[in-house]
Amino acid sequence: MNVFIVGIGLIGGSFARDIKRISAESKIYGIDANAKHLDEALALNLIDAQATYEDLNIADMVIVAIPVDVLVAELPLILDAVNDNCVVFDGGSTKKLICQQLEDHPKRRNYLACHPIAGTEFSGPSAAIEGLYEGKTNIICEVEKTAFKLQEKALELFQKMGMRIRYMNPEAHDKHIAYVSHLSHISSFMLGKTVIEKEKNERDIFDMAGSGFESTVRLAKSSPAMWAPIFKQNKANVVETLEEYIQNLEAFKQMLVNDDFEGIYNEMNETNNIKEILNGIPLNKK
After folding, report:
1. Which residue from 18, 231, 226 is spatially nearest to 124, judged by alpha carbons?
2. Integer CA distances (angstroms), 4 to 87, 96, 160, 162, in order
3. How many Cα neighbours within 13 Å face the side chain of 285?
4. Cα–chain-centroid distance for residue 246?
5. Contact by Cβ (8 Å): 92, 78
6. What is the CB neighbour count within 10 angstroms for residue 261?
7. Whole-angstrom Cα distance, residue 234 to residue 124?
8. Spatial contact of 6 and 64, defined as CB atoms under 8 Å apart
9. Which of helix, strand or coil describes residue 273?
10. 242: which residues sit within 8 A by CB, 6+ positions away?
């Protein structure tokens, strides 16, 4: 199988590592706007050869792992270049605009709209991890618009990689992901900003930072080139989640001002239910 990966960073490179493990006979080609990334991917044995869009006619599978603003522009060109038996899927964190962009494309049947919910705060080919997707959820949107035999080709790969599959429409995906992913990144970036600004006057602040701070701001090390376009494409949902988040912060602040520490305890105690939710235990089953 000829697999082309457009964007050899954490997401694309991790796909490459798993494909090499579970399908040793496959040949992996890399396409990337950054020539250094291609050289690094070759040196790390993530890919077998460098390629361009002109080579896509021999592809059996194309994985597109580039920022969502570039994704909207490049996916139509990629679909133009592939053959009828090639499946193209992406890893974009927004889906509505991308699906709208491809709605009338002559080769829409070749495209599977995906979002594997996995990653780290690191980027580039060296960040690629074998097994990154094991046990992770892959959300697929508008599966009915993809040719069945091409769906099967992609789903077989996902199954071998150990991914869980969820089907969702693009609008629901973008709304839900704003809460569980996009808001988390904004919170991390803004906490980091707050502390950096304070550190200008208090040089010892980072010496006092513990594991709680480190884990909370971990996402602030994520690539702005990737996340700024995500916030732009999902602006309406992100604004809605921020408004709710800010209301909760204001309410917490007011409880502090009012010395309502019983209320603060109750708020935190109720929020502790997140442990059960993340472990897959419905709250009514506690």
Report:
1. 226
2. 10, 24, 18, 21
3. 6
4. 24
5. no
6. 10
7. 24
8. yes
9. coil
10. 183, 186
* Amino acid found at 8: I
Using an 8 Å Cβ cutoff, are 159 and 140 in contact? no
Q: In what order do the strands lie in the sheet with 49-50?
A: 49-50, 27-31, 2-6, 61-64, 87-90, 111-116, 137-141, 164-168
Exposed, middle or buried, 175 (CB in 10 Å: 0-12/13-18/19+)? middle
> Residue 54 CA to chain centroid, in angstroms?
27
The answer to whether the beta carbons of residues 3 and 60 sit under 8 Å apart is yes
pLDDT tens track, the chain, 286 positions = 999 999 999 999 999 999 999 999 999 999 999 999 999 999 999 999 999 999 999 999 999 999 999 999 999 999 999 999 999 999 999 999 999 999 999 999 999 999 999 988 788 999 999 999 999 999 999 999 999 999 999 999 999 999 999 999 999 999 999 998 899 889 988 988 888 777 666 666 666 666 677 777 777 888 888 889 999 999 999 999 999 999 999 999 999 999 999 999 998 888 887 766 566 655 555 4
The residue count for the chain: 286
Cβ-based neighbour number of residue 29 at 10 Å: 21
pLDDT for the residue numbered 282: 52
Q: Report d(CA 37, CA 8) in Å as an integer.
A: 7
E strand residue ranges, the chain = 2-6, 27-31, 49-50, 61-64, 87-90, 111-116, 137-141, 164-168
- Alpha helix segments (H runs only) across 103-163: 148-160
How far is the C-alpha of 241 from the C-alpha of 230, rounded, in Å?
Answer: 14
* Helix (H/G/I), strand (E/B), else coil: 6: strand
Helix axes 224-233, 183-199, angle to 10 degrees: 130
Q: For residues 85 and 109, is the Cβ–Cβ distance under 8 A? A: no
Cα 282 from Cα 273, distance rounded (Å): 10
